[in-house]
Amino acid sequence: MRIMGLDFGSKTVGVAVSDPLFITAQSVEIIRRKQENKLRQTLARIETLIEEYEVDRIVIGLPKNMNNTEGERVEKTREFADMIYRRTGIEPVMWDERLTTVSADRVMMESGIRREERKEYVDAIAASFILQGYLDSLKLQKEQ
Fold first, then answer.
1. CATH code of the domain containing 115
2. Domain count of the chain?
């Protein structure tokens, strides 16, 4: 079994999965849609990936504001999490994602990836950062 990490955006969902030992997160893909509220195909693709990777837990990045308040994106992300739960029966874990997109962008910049190309990958890398943060927290819990 594996854990899936999702970075839910207005037109994309970055997807990452853990290895079977829950040590590392790997980017899988970016699911794109033309309109923000058209999620049927996005949810169907997530279901396919859940089966393919034998996922039994899902972590979704919660886009809180830097001052820890919750805005419109948090509400839409919670609605998305509810849709996933209704379709899959897997109740998503909400994970604070502040600065994951910034971190992903910084890693790509340091790797020499051009600005135009970074937009292609940032959501998948952000999903892997969200998932890796969650995996690291699981490891810390076991050590205590």
1. 3.30.420.140
2. 1
